[in-house]
From TrEMBL:
Its EC number is 2.7.1.180. Belongs to the ApbE family. Its cofactor is Mg(2+); Mn(2+). Gene3D superfamilies: ApbE-like domains. It catalyses: L-threonyl-[protein] + FAD = FMN-L-threonyl-[protein] + AMP + H(+). Keywords: FAD, Flavoprotein, Magnesium, Metal-binding, Transferase. This is FAD:protein FMN transferase. The keyword Metal-binding applies. It comes from Paradevosia shaoguanensis. Magnesium. Can also use manganese. Pfam families: ApbE. One of its GO terms (molecular function) is metal ion binding.
Length: 338
């Protein structure tokens, strides 16, 4: 979970795959902005707070023209809504929902194709540790623990094996005709990458609009430039209990966090939403992973991949994305940098 330099509204319920992020107030404006100036409006922060893909979200822009900043924020919010209509699991008419329901998606959007291509690349680089086809496992565990008196050890080995038989990123077929899932019963979740992709789309649009000091929080974090006073943006990491922890300093970078505490199916936390495709069970090699990378799409997917793959394979997986680095929290609470 994270804090940074700007105030946000109270957090909402997180999406199932992301660690909660709360952006707390500690903004320090540049000295020049505080001092008296005779001519023209002075730059200040302009913010939007809301929700994207189930996560508390915000956009913060530093600009002297309030009208331009507010109009830009409105356009970005519309863009977020457009992309949610592509990637949401909970909108019945989204592209993803239609693909999961029908097994085929004709005329897939460029956004869907781009995310699926990146997903397959990260899946290949991580030997399947990141796999967007784990949705049948999610459904299996959700349905199991929703039953009164559910076996606390989880679904039966037979049920897990059946669900695992539907998990294979290599059976996602992407072509000029659209997207097809090769086996009946396959289903995708893009919650491990779509938030990062939406973050990048919005950040790229804002950069093209000429905004130089920006923080985008749309489930994952990306900053443009520095804080207006010239220092890096400070992103504070919080653990699952909300306690203060380490601080990241970012300039033109992104960060993403993965931890099993994001969504748990049972009170013990043994069964959570980040699945190891090799076992069909929740991954427990690490407690938390924080990835920093130039782009949020990569940081988002890599965080999940490393959480599943574990420390031994972390350097190999990170090496596939130039500039990526990670903080891995082991099960004993110690932290290693990769």
């Amino acid at each position: 979970m994270t804090t940074r330099d700007l105030p946000l509204a109270a957090p909402r319920t997180p999406s199932r795959r992301q660690a909660l992020k709360i952006l707390a107030a500690s903004a320090a404006l540049p000295v020049g902005a505080i001092g008296f100036r005779m001519f023209g409006p002075q730059p200040t922060f302009h913010e939007w707070h809301g929700e994207a893909l189930g996560a508390a979200s915000s956009l913060s822009l530093w600009h002297s023209n309030a009208g331009h900043a507010q109009r830009t924020l409105a356009r970005m919010v519309s863009e977020v809504a457009r992309l949610e209509a592509v990637f949401s699991l909970y909108q019945p008419d989204s592209e993803l929902s239609r693909l999961n329901r029908d097994g085929v998606l004709a005329n897939a959007s460029r956004d869907m194709v781009a995310v699926l291509e990146t997903s397959r690349a990260i899946a290949s680089a991580s030997n399947g540790a990141f796999d967007p086809t784990v949705q049948p496992l999610w459904t299996l565990y959700q349905d199991h623990f929703a039953q009164p008196g559910a076996d606390p050890s989880g679904p039966s080995p037979k049920a897990i094996a059946a669900a695992r038989g539907l998990v294979d990123y290599q059976r996602i077929e992407v072509s000029s005709r659209g997207v097809r899932l090769a086996s009946q019963g396959m289903a995708l979740t893009l919650n491990g990458i779509a938030q990062g992709y939406i973050t990048d789309v919005v950040a790229d649009l804002l950069r093209n609009e000429g905004f130089d000091h920006v923080v985008v929080e749309l489930g994952e974090t990306r900053v443009l430039g520095t804080h207006p006073d010239g220092r890096p943006w400070r992103v504070g990491l919080r653990d699952a209990s909300g306690g203060a922890g380490r601080t990241l300093e970012l300039i033109n970078e992104s960060s993403a966090t993965s931890g099993g505490y994001g969504t748990m199916f049972d009170l013990s936390g043994e069964h959570h939403h980040i699945f190891d495709p090799n076992t069909g069970q929740s991954a427990h090699r690490l407690t938390e992973v924080v990835v920093t990378a130039p782009r949020a799409t990569d940081a988002d997917a890599l965080a999940t991949a490393l959480f599943v793959a574990g420390e031994d394979r972390a350097a190999q997986v990170l090496a596939t994305v130039p500039g990526a680095r990670a903080l891995l929290t082991r099960t004993d609470g110690t932290v290693v940098r990769v």
